[in-house]
Design goal:
Chain lengths: 514, 668
């Protein structure tokens, strides 16, 4: 396979190892009865997983556009389903984000989860396996298996360890994403017959499809991925799911699960049906800016911290879809970086909400005022994440949003102007939140709260470091993307000769010359 | 060597931000003593480096670009973290680090004993870093980091007394209003990139003369929106008076001497673009003149010592914009420098007054302080004379030059607005001086015995700034006479580099001197009116306020602009948010729940159908069905661990399959 570079590093089957390790952890857990021991097993499994994932970055060759760390094996002969894994600059950071956040979430759940600890940890680890699997899979059936399996632990996380209205939220989440998934399944099957009887994602990305077929496929993909992102108007499951989910669930949901939708657009919609993607671009761009503005206004109106951050996610993910669909290097790389950034920053914000909920048992802004006095460290972290979220230069989000907006501006000035207004609104709702939560006089209820302990600091500090690290040295994070993004555009341009309309859109600034 | 020194300028304060910041976060491992020494020491080190760089540039004024590292790139967009060192940068560097250093020293005394002393100096150093990036950046993005960075520090320092609700609100307001400007600035950056394909100053300005006027105007106006926000011009000035919630040294450093002048710096830096956009340039001048007068009129009646100074800052920044608007860029920077001296002096001496009165800021509760705090009185007097345009003081030279340019360029209306504003300035500053330091003492009796002069550490910076306020204007006239001073010679290459500026097109000699006499008379008239009202006949202003109640209330309530913005923008935004929230619940959630209910009803319907129709007709098979259903129901226990078991079992099977196939396929 010329498109996949097989793994030749010192760690054979590295990706398989990463997929299986959490499940092994689950198996080891069976030998322990004590809850603390189980937590330790879960944590050390996740920590080892993270350590094992670091070589992915270290050994990744940024100058190559092919899939790396590849593994290919026959799975089913007829129809030809393969166990094919590999990563490129598009999936690399999402895997590292997943492996970084899982141990953090386990630590964050250490005291917060009091019932069914074993089951909770199993759900977390299974979750990790499926998430890593989704980002590695290069076979459509394999991808679909991971994609679907992922729903179950998430459904349980919300439905079992969630808040009072958890059943409603869990079912809503499940049904919404399931509906999208079924359409995705149909797309997979149609593609199999249309793309040359194969489930190989890379091969399907090289095949040619008729205009009508592309349109159908595009909208089926869209249904599956737009729900996951979530794009306006499919966002309504998100606030409910976030509000009811336990902290770890919210973090994983916001930081990784939402990225699956954007990843889907990049891995499937753009390369497989490029002409349709370009044809329907105006619709997607419009929905994206609507999400940016709408999400921001919704965030402004919330009294519940988790809802506020949930709607801010809708707004921020609008920037991601915006960047993906402007089809230039700035936009797509900005969107990719923004996917990572949103995972870090929003993850941090949800952790912050979780920490205060553990103390006051309320997520209402009104119940948590004046926290700077009793909890200066907490307030500092909250302010840093809020500033990062509103895209302050020097923090991670600035680079991502800047690139997305530059890319958008080259494509459509109107859209860029409206999206830029979104960053004003981000400052409004985030700083208003900070003003009410961190500043002011503490109430009698909050005046005596203990500040963060070392364990709690340990969950936030890595994210704080990343906020500044990406903000100050973004090139380290952008470098692995360049070739993969250029390759993506090459793939999209494969039908250019026969499709003269596509040329205009693709020749925009930032396109790598063939 | 040169590159290293340049890079060190922002690095010194950055290091102390890290040291002091970690110290605060980790629970004060070292004392406040160490914290403040680190803080002012680093700024002093930056100042020395800036001096050295200045000396280098004196001998070789060509622009030097220093690249620290490649920051980020995407497609053909390359952004370096780089610095551009030219005469304009040097002037800004010396002002920022020099005045910044003095204010740091002053703060050691002023903030003594405050809770969060180390936090204060962390923010102040962070501000220095951002401000230095702002003036040193070699491209728009570095300027923008500094731009938002100073906004952040302004936010943090306005909200320094974070448990005061008013301070927290003022901080949010400052940041949000600035963000509106920043959005405009961002759009300007995008436009520049879309037009020139680069964001480096040198490349952009080299091509600027080829701009068509439409694009140039668009870029210039977007930049102007940014400048208006940062420099508190109409209509985005409302945050600055509220920013006085911060400690007084902050007001002196950020909200008078340095940060708020960033807009002026930015316009001058981009003059190559403004020269191609005469309409936008005129707009700059109009906004400047209008703001100068507007803010000055509000200043006439305010009673909070710091707010008077805040409005005077807005007004003086208006003068600088006015200068830019008539193409007198050097005059704008000249006024920026002298203003930095005398406004820092005024704020710091106001701080000394507040310090003497244990926190009192209301001038109605002052009076007669002349002999109680004599040094403060003298330096305040000097500051007032400088800003009011007393002959041969620094402010006199620079303000006069601005008005002269407005007149000579034929902008008579702008000149008139400026002249009236100058009159108002002289009046309200003299009023402030008289009410605070002269007449009967109105200090409450219990506070009376505590009045004390400030410590040496605060007075020395005051005296240095006072000296600069007196003689600082001379750099503009010595050795070559008006507009041929060292300052103008030094900056000339900047403005002339693109060749488009009409700075020296006129050689009128007599007119400037007549104008000089005119503005001097205006200044004296303002002083005399105040002298009459507040020294000779203190009862008159009260009668005046009674007689012209409408006008007085209009000014006292600051034209109700804050209330207007509240009604026009803030409230509607919040309402819109709430309305959308309801819309979301009713429409989207409603749709989901509707589908849900419909499905449930459908399910109930088919259950009924199945039960009565199908079972009824196929009773025999129905029984079999029943049995199967009972079996299946066992699986649907609703117990989590059952689900989990099924999940895990399925998963284990799946994994085994994978492993199996890996094994089988591993050989191939």
């Amino acid at each position: 396979m010329s498109n996949i570079i097989l793994n030749t590093t010192e760690l054979p089957h590295l990706l398989t190892l990463l997929i299986l390790l959490p499940v092994v952890g689950v198996a080891v857990m069976a030998f322990f009865k004590d809850e603390t021991a189980i937590k330790h097993v879960a944590f050390w499994t996740a920590a080892l997983e993270f350590l094992l994932s670091v070589p992915l970055y270290l050994w990744f060759e940024p100058q190559r556009s092919q899939m790396q760390f590849g593994e290919v094996a026959e799975w089913i002969t007829t129809p030809p389903v393969r166990y094919a894994l590999g990563i490129d600059g598009i999936s690399l950071w999402l895997i590292l984000l997943t492996t970084l956040l899982t141990p953090i979430c386990i630590v964050a759940s250490w005291t917060a989860i009091k019932t069914r600890v074993r089951e909770f940890m199993i759900a977390m680890l299974v979750m990790e396996t499926t998430m890593v699997g989704v980002f590695c899979a290069l076979d459509f059936v394999l991808f679909y298996v991971f994609w679907e399996t992922m729903l179950i632990p998430m459904y349980l996380l919300i439905g079992v360890w969630g808040g009072p209205n958890r059943i409603y939220a869990a079912i809503k989440f499940f049904l919404y994403t399931l509906a999208g998934s079924f359409l995705l399944l149909i797309a997979v099957i149609v593609l199999f017959f249309q793309g040359g009887h194969t489930f190989d994602i890379l091969a399907l990305s090289q095949a040619h499809y008729g205009q009508t077929m592309q349109a159908w496929l595009f909208w089926t993909f869209f249904a599956a991925f737009a729900v996951k992102v979530p794009m306006f108007p499919f966002h309504t499951w998100l606030p409910d799911a976030h509000v009811e989910a336990p902290t770890a669930g919210s973090v994983i949901l916001a930081s990784v699960l939402l990225k699956m939708g954007a990843y889907g657009f990049l891995r499937f919609s753009l390369p497989i049906v490029p002409d349709a993607a370009q044809r329907f671009t105006p619709i997607i761009l419009t929905l994206s800016v609507v999400a940016i503005i709408y999400g921001a206004y919704m965030a402004l109106a919330q009294a519940d911290l988790k809802k506020l951050i949930a709607y801010s996610s809708v707004s921020h993910m609008g920037f991601v879809t915006l960047g993906i669909f402007v089809f230039n290097a700035q936009g797509v790389e900005g969107a990719l970086l923004q996917m990572l950034n949103h995972g870090i920053t929003t993850g941090g914000l949800f952790l912050c909400v979780g920490l205060i909920y553990e103390r006051t048992h309320s997520r209402l802004i009104a119940d948590n005022g004046g926290l700077s006095k009793p909890m200066p460290r907490y307030a500092a972290c909250l302010v840093i994440f809020a500033l990062s979220s509103l895209g302050l230069p020097g923090t991670n989000n600035f680079i991502g949003e800047f690139l997305v907006l530059v890319g958008t501006f080259l494509q459509s000035k109107t859209i860029a102007v409206i999206a830029t207004l979104g960053i004003i609104l981000a400052a409004v709702y985030l700083l208003w939140m900070v003003q009410r939560v961190a500043f002011g006089v503490p109430s009698p209820k909050t005046a005596k709260l203990p500040d963060l302990n070392w364990c709690e600091m340990a969950t936030l500090v890595p994210l704080v470091i990343l906020v500044f690290w990406i903000g100050v040295f973004p090139n380290l994070f952008l470098a692995p993307m360049h070739e993969s993004v250029a390759h993506l555009f090459d793939t999209m341009a494969r039908g250019q000769q026969s499709m003269p309309t596509a040329v205009g859109l693709l020749s925009g600034a930032g396109m790598t010359a063939p | 060597m040169f590159d290293l020194v340049v890079i060190l300028i922002p690095v010194f304060p950055l290091l102390t931000v890290m040291a002091n910041g970690l110290n605060v976060m980790l629970g004060h491992r070292f004392s406040d003593e160490v914290a403040h020494r680190l803080a002012w020491g680093s700024v002093f080190a930056s100042f020395l480096c800036s001096l050295w760089v200045f000396v280098q540039i004196l001998s070789d004024p060509a622009p030097h670009t220093v690249v620290a590292y490649r920051w980020f790139f995407g497609g053909d967009l390359q952004v370096n973290l780089g610095f551009l060192i030219d005469p304009l940068t040097c002037v800004m560097l010396l002002v920022v680090t020099g005045v910044g250093f003095l204010i740091h020293v002053y703060s050691v005394g002023y903030m003594h004993g405050e809770e969060g002393f180390a936090r204060f100096f962390t923010y102040m150093n962070l501000f220095m870093v951002s401000m230095l990036l702002l003036v040193m950046g070699s491209n728009y993005v570095v300027l923008f980091i500094g731009w938002e960075g100073v906004g952040l520090c302004s936010y943090l320092l306005i909200g320094y007394y974070y448990d005061r609700v008013s301070a927290a609100q003022a901080a949010t307001k400052a940041f949000v209003v600035n963000r509106i400007g920043d959005a405009g600035f961002l759009l300007a950056i995008f436009l520049v990139f879309a037009t020139f394909g680069t964001l480096d100053y040198t490349d952009v300005f080299a091509q600027a003369s080829r701009l068509d006027s439409g694009t140039a105007t668009a870029i210039a106006i977007c930049l102007l929106i940014g400048a208006i926000g940062k420099s508190a011009q109409l209509p985005l000035y409302t945050w600055l008076p509220d920013a006085m919630e911060g400690p007084t040294p902050v007001s002196a450093l950020i909200h008078a001497a340095t940060m708020v002048t960033a807009g002026v710096y930015m316009v001058v830096r981009n003059h190559a673009i403004y020269d191609m956009a005469p309409d936008a340039l005129l707009l700059v001048g109009v906004i400047g003149a209008a703001t100068a007068l507007f803010a000055a009129t509000i200043g006439l009646v305010q009673t909070d010592i710091k707010r008077v100074l805040a409005y005077s800052t807005v007004s003086q920044l208006g003068f600088m914009f006015l200068a830019c608007g008539v193409g007198a860029y050097i005059a704008a920077i000249f006024h920026l420098v002298t203003h930095a001296f005398f406004k820092a002096l005024l704020f710091l001496s106001a701080g000394s007054v507040i310090h003497a009165l244990s926190g009192e800021q209301d001038i109605r509760k002052m009076g007669g302080l002349k002999d109680r705090i004599p040094v403060t009185h003298w330096v305040f007097l000097i500051g007032t004379a400088a800003i009011a345009g007393f002959p041969f003081m620094s402010g006199w030279w620079s303000k006069d030059e601005i008005l002269g340019h407005a007149f000579v360029h034929g902008r008579y209306i702008l000149w008139l607005l400026g002249a009236i504003a100058a009159f108002c300035t002289s009046f309200y500053m003299s009023r402030l001086l008289y009410i605070t330091f002269y007449g009967e003492s109105r200090v409450p009796h219990e506070a009376e015995p505590h009045i004390h002069e400030s410590p040496q550490v605060m007075l020395i910076p005051l005296v240095v700034l006072a000296v600069l306020s007196v003689i600082g204007g001379l750099i503009g006239v010595i050795p070559g006479g008006m507009e041929n001073g060292a300052f103008h010679q030094f900056l000339k290459p900047i403005v002339l580099s693109t060749g488009a500026g009409g700075e020296e097109a006129h050689d009128v000699h007599l007119l400037p001197y007549m104008l000089m006499v005119a503005t001097t008379l205006i200044g004296v008239a303002g002083w005399f009116t105040a002298h009459y009202f507040y020294y000779l006949r203190p009862a008159v202003p009260v009668q005046f306020a009674e007689q012209m109640r409408g006008a007085y209330m209009l000014l006292l309530n600051k034209y109700w602009v804050d209330e207007l913005y509240q009604k026009l923008f803030v409230e509607p935004s919040k309402s819109l948010g709430r309305a959308l929230d309801r819309f979301d619940t009713v429409v989207f959630d409603g749709a989901v729940v509707g589908v849900w209910k419909a499905t449930e009803m459908g399910a109930a319907g088919s259950t009924w159908f199945e039960k009565y129709v199908i079972y009824g007709s196929l009773n025999v098979i129905g029984y079999g069905n029943h049995l199967a259903a009972r079996l299946l129901r066992q699986l649907q226990s609703g117990l989590v661990h059952h689900y989990a078991t099924i999940l895990i079992a399925g998963f284990v099977i799946l994994v085994n399959l994978i492993v199996l196939f890996l094994w089988v396929g591993g050989g191939s």
